Amino acid sequence: MRKLLKHRKKMSRLIFKFDLKTFFHFFVVFTIIFGALTLIILQTLTTGIYKTTDETIDRLSKNPLVLLSLASRDNSDSSSLYQVDNFDDPILSDSPSVAPNQTVVLYDKNGRVLNAKSDITSNTLSSNLKFSKANLSKITTVTMKTATGETLLYRTRLFKVSFDKRITTNITYIQLFVNVNQLSESLARSQFIIMTTMISFWLISLFASIYLAHWSQKPVLIAYEKQKNFVENASHELRTPLAILQNRLELLFQRPTATIIDQSENISQSLAEVRNMRILTSNLLNLAKRDDGLKVELSDVDHTYFEAIFENYQLLADNSQKQFSNNIALKGSVKLDEGLIRQVLTILFDNAVKYSDPYSEITMTVAKIGQNLIITTADNGYGISDDDKNKIFDRFYRVDKARTRQKGGFGLGLSLAKQIIDACGGKIEVQDNQPKGTKFIIKLKV
Questions:
Q1: How confident is the model at residue 207 (pLDDT cuts 50, 70, 90)?
Q2: C-alpha to C-alpha distance for 156 and 58, rounded to whole angstroms
């Protein structure tokens, strides 16, 4: 009882550590995904919302005459900005219209503002205005504050210009400002919605990580339990023959002068246990190979394949004082793995021989029904209870341990048979045989 409690405590600690580690991995992955997704969406949104404005700035920057017209509109003393030599040539006419939120600031070659009466260069905002050649030809975002404390946001570009020879002016640089307060407010609202949504999903990922941590550990724990049970059962099965061998060999030493005939019983029993151990280790090796994956090699077989197998079974049945009969209702050929199916049939036949009384009947039938090959093995032996039917294909499980040990079984044959049938894409099930005994039914798609 103490060992069981100690084992459960150890398992609980292992499960907790595994849970915590797996949860942390899932949560970190979700955090990175949502963080990267948020950055990408915000960057795309910011770039997209100013795209039209930046395209407008770029278009107007290529037409300085339009910007000169806009500066003249905002400055009442336009004569101080430029002079046109030929008034009959409408070089400033038919220019694209400009929006009210667009403002132009003109500079001379020294960076001095020429249109001092514009909105941007008024006393209210002039303290925030800075001329810098470092931003030449670049679209940047600037913030200015009014006397009332209101914040105005502009997208702007400073660029160097040259005019037609008919225009006399000392304008060297033009800076275009486009007010984007409305766009900025819309961007802020969108960013808030995106951040709120992402944080909500990030919190949901917390619970998802907990669930996935529990879910992902189940197959690991099941595999661990199967491995532990397998090792315990294998150790238990090997313990008995080893103990018998030890006792028999000790008996040989107690009578060192005895002849082989005198010790024949001890030698015979020792050899019997060695054979049992060889069979057990061979079965264990086969199961280990099957766990690594079965390689199914299909080939065409007909009724002669089963006839040859059943002919050998007839001889074995006669030697075991059993009545054996078979029925093969197979026309044409079917595709199956000859070696694997022969191994399964041998396991079922061997079980039927072991767990039935002398002179009892064993019947094996083969029939093709539709696209399925049905193989049935029936005996009128001891039978299997309903509870045992659910466990009969588990490794080392035996219906009657005392009788099985006496018959030389280890509870591995049916487990191996099921693995083979599963690998072949078929099904195997156990039923009661009427009026007495057991029936194993194999269904293979051929």
A1: confident
A2: 10
The pLDDT value given to residue 235: 67
The pair of structure tokens assigned to 205 is: 């990922």
User: Is 252 in contact with 265 (CB distance < 8 Å)?
Assistant: no
pLDDT single digits (tens) 389-417? 877 887 766 665 444 444 455 567 788 88
CA distance 376 to 441: 5
Coil, helix or strand for 207?
Answer: helix
Amino acid symbol at 72: S
The number of beta carbons lying within 10 Å of the beta carbon of residue 356 is 22
- Rounded CA-CA distance 385/412 in Å is 19
Residue 140 pairs with which residues in a beta bridge? 156
Residue extents of the structural domains in the chain? 52-179, 236-291, 299-445
DSSP code, position 355? T
103 Cα distance to chain centroid: 56
Residue 251, C-beta contacts closer than 8 angstroms, at least 6 positions apart = 263, 266
Dump pLDDT digits (tens) for 159-201: 888 777 766 677 888 888 888 888 888 888 988 998 998 888 8
Residues in a beta bridge with 84: 167
Please say whether the beta carbons of 383 and 438 come within 8 A: yes
Tell me the average pLDDT across 353-362.
Answer: 87
Residues counted in the chain: 446
- Structure confidence by residue, pLDDT tens digits, 83-97: 555 544 444 444 445
Query: What DSSP line would sit under 111-129, residue for residue?
Result: --BS-TTSSTTSTTTGGG-
Q: How far is 144 from 151, CA to CA, in rounded Å? A: 6
With beta carbons less than 8 A apart as the criterion, state whether 58 and 245 touch. Answer: no
Model confidence, pTM: 0.47
Identify the H or E element spanning 297.
Answer: none
Q: For the residues 253-266, what does the mean pLDDT come to?
A: 76
161 vs 143: CA distance, rounded Å: 25
Residue type, 308: A
| Rounded distance between C-alpha atoms, residue 68 and residue 91, angstroms | 11
Tokens standing for residue 404 = 């099985």
Mean pLDDT (the chain) is 77
CA–CA separation, 395 vs 299, rounded Å? 29
Rounded to the nearest angstrom, the gap between the alpha carbon of residue 223 and the centroid of all alpha carbons in its chain is: 18
Phi (first) and psi of residue 140, to 5 degrees: -130, 170
φ and ψ of 375, to 5 deg: -120, 125
* pLDDT at residue 419, rounded to an integer: 83
Q: Determine the 3-state secondary structure of 392 from DSSP.
A: coil
pLDDT in tens, 169-180: 778 888 888 888
In CATH, the number for domain 299-445 is 3.30.565.10
